[in-house]
Amino acid sequence: MVVHALDVESIGVPADATPAVLGFTMSGHILGRAVLTATAETPA
């Protein structure tokens, strides 16, 4: 999972926009980005 911090409240992309349109529009507004990686362990 990736979480982005943006410099605007809304980037004005419609809900049915493609991921490519979202990524292109969002790229100029990114302040920070975090990648969350879930891990699990089976008890021995």
TrEMBL record:
Q: Which Gene3D superfamilies match?
A: PEBP-like (3.90.280.10)
Matching entries from InterPro entries are given as: PEBP-like_sf
Q: What is this protein called?
A: 3'-5' exonuclease
Q: Which organism is it from?
A: Streptomyces rhizosphaericus
